[in-house]
Amino acid sequence: MLAKRIIPCLDVKDGQTVKGTNFVDLRQAGDPVELGAAYSRMGADELVYLDITASHEGRKTFTDMVGRVAAKINIPFTVGGGINELSDVDRMLSAGADKVSVNSAAVRRPDLINEIAGRFGSQVCVVAIDAKLTDHGWKCYLNGGRIETERGLFEWAKEAADRGAGEILFTSMNHDGVKTGFANEALARLADELPIPIIASGGAGKMEHFRDAFQIGHADAALAASVFHFGEIGIAELKQYLTNEGIEIRI
Questions:
Q1: Is residue 190 within 8 Å of residue 157, measured between CB atoms?
Q2: What CATH number is attached to the domain comprising 128?
């Protein structure tokens, strides 16, 4: 069995790391390059950087930041936000990123997944899905949770895997930032139905939540932001706790 992964996520806006609750009420959390370097030293397995506004004007700034991150850390990292075509992927990989995350652009044009996997390999393509549990089941949302779609979480995740995605990064909007635990039932269904790794996101508040994401949700990796950014959970302590709980983890 592959070791489970712990992944700090850094949402970047105007060159700063920010964190909100339910995708709103953002507050600053520090310099993304220095934070990333600190997490690398602390034993994080990977990092995810998301350009959450992904404005056209911010492209160059974000690319420069990716290059600075690559120079400072020695663990894999994924970048996402505003990746709409192969040239965007090429630019991020050339700057030093290991993987790219696509979300809204892939829902609007699913062939993008095939193109990325075909050109760069499935291992480069992470399909991020922001979904909310509604009266009509789990629905996918676009543009940072602003636009509801008709796509259901499970059918879209399966299509993404079939098209060549290497991983699914599933964020529960209901759980984002509220620190009451991950959406373990949905995670377990994704893990059961898909042949590719599932990254859990949204809901981490204490160490037990990570344990549950792995043991109940069968996630391959767990991603969190504010509990790491604001020092509520230490990565080394978390990994020791999970090891004590019988979960295979890289120490």
A1: yes
A2: 3.20.20.70
Q: How many domains does the chain have?
A: 1
Does a structural domain hold residue 208?
A: yes
Give pLDDT tens digits for 188-233: 999 999 999 999 999 999 999 999 999 999 999 999 998 998 899 9
Domain that holds residue 190: 5-244
Residue-wise pLDDT tens digits, 98-143: 999 999 999 999 999 999 999 999 999 999 999 999 999 999 999 7
Q: Which residues are catalytic?
A: 11, 130
User: Is residue 251 in some structural domain?
Assistant: no
> H-helix or E-strand containing 207?
helix 207-215
pTM (predicted TM-score):
0.93
Identify the sign of the CA torsion 206, 32, 9, 221: negative
Segment holding 16, helix H or strand E: strand 16-21
